[in-house]
Amino acid sequence: MRLFEDQRIVMTLDAGGTNFVFSAIQAGKEIISPIAIRANANNLDACLQSIVDGFRRVQSKLEEKPAAISFAFPGPADYKSGIIGDLGNLPCFRGGVALGPMLEDLFKMPVFIGNDGDLFAYGEAAAGLLPEVNMELKKRGIPKQYRNLFGITLGTGFGAGIVVNDTLCEGDNSAGGEIWLMRNFKNTRTNAEEAVSIRAVRRVYEEVSGQPAGELTPKDIYEIAMGEKDGDREAALKAFDEMAEAVAESLCNAITLVDGLIVIGGGLAGAYNLMAPRIVEHMNGEIENIKGEKMSRLESRVYNLEDEFSRKSFYNFNKVQVKTPFSGRMVDYVPDKRIAIGLSKLGASRAIALGAYAKALERL
What is the pTM of this model? Predict the structure, then answer.
């Protein structure tokens, strides 16, 4: 997909519980200044009117008619039908609202709505980590290209998206990539999000320090862990170490099925330098069979693209040539199975916007 060459315009929306931010993208670039409108989260009529007014204001600033509307909306939803279900931060949608069909009727153009985790992964696959890695492999003359990507977002919750063979995998029930519902590795009675979220960082800090976190944010706890702010450094380090282990085990379960690159985004990705060594160590660790025999946790070796030594090691593929039986023709062979994990190259917000743009162009 030539995302940055396509001249079609797509109107977009960044939907939060407090404000809706509207914009438009052409050739992969935002072409107007974003327009923010109050969400009116508890009043359905007012909320829907805010959405309509926002897109009308965007359209009034465009010199040509847009080709579509495409945006992420917090789940749960039937994204293919454009119906939004019960939302925590937008309670007025409870019971189901046909938002997509409403916008199609009013604006007379296709409307595409997606999950933010899905669109984050799709944006990184179209214009972020995936093409960057493939470009580097090509530059080094390595006859290997990646076409699969698993993206996760770390923040208020634990989200994910899957791209398989350059195609977004949303699932038959709009429920693909729901990594937050995997079993919590640290507390198997609960889901993974209880160990991978803002509340998890604060909870572990409180448990280890024996003191209430009070007004401390994850950023504060990160700075305590880095020795940049006063506080219980041992508790802060433990908070991010426990989250890293829970992330790692969830990724192990996911990547055994997807087998592709891994990209991380979201607010808590700012603590990547604390978590990445533990994540990679766990994913490259061992597991046992019923006889107690040890084996690698994963089929592939995991490398951290944000660490210089690990990055160089990842790109140092063992390329060999093997002879074709009966003809003698020599064929390039890359025997290593490798997975790279790295930070979002676009930032979560821009990746989601570009994912929405890419989804619209692909569907059109």
Answer: 0.94
